[in-house]
Amino acid sequence: MDCIVKIASQKAVVIFSKSSCCMCHAIKRLFYEQGVSPAIFELDEDSRGKEMEWALTRLGCNPSVPAVFIGGKFVGSANTVMTLHLNGNLKKMLKEAGAIWL
């Protein structure tokens, strides 16, 4: 779990993903379209992927991917991120974390 916290604090937006996950792809596209350049960790391409996936589940991310961290804090997965986007709070969070400036 310490590994997840350390990675999540490395950049304003961090996404734990799987390359074969369609919802992960949609969430990554959403951030790119907002002008954000997130750090992406593809768990199915990482030697510690299973361990990190287990740690994400213990943090409360169910399903384990996509898991989004903004400003080093766990935000949630696809449903939470899409809700934040639709109600306008995602952009505010991204500005506060320094991921976007406009």
TrEMBL record:
Keyword Cytoplasm: yes
Keyword DNA repair: no
GO CC term, one of those recorded: cytoplasm
Residue stretches making up the Glutaredoxin domain: 13-75
InterPro entries, alphabetized: GlrX-like_pln_2 (IPR011905), Glutaredoxin (IPR002109)
Family membership noted in the UniProt record: Belongs to the glutaredoxin family. CC-type subfamily.
Name the record gives this protein: Glutaredoxin domain-containing protein
Organism for this UniProt entry: Carya illinoinensis
Lineage, uppermost ranks: Eukaryota, Viridiplantae, Streptophyta, Embryophyta, Tracheophyta
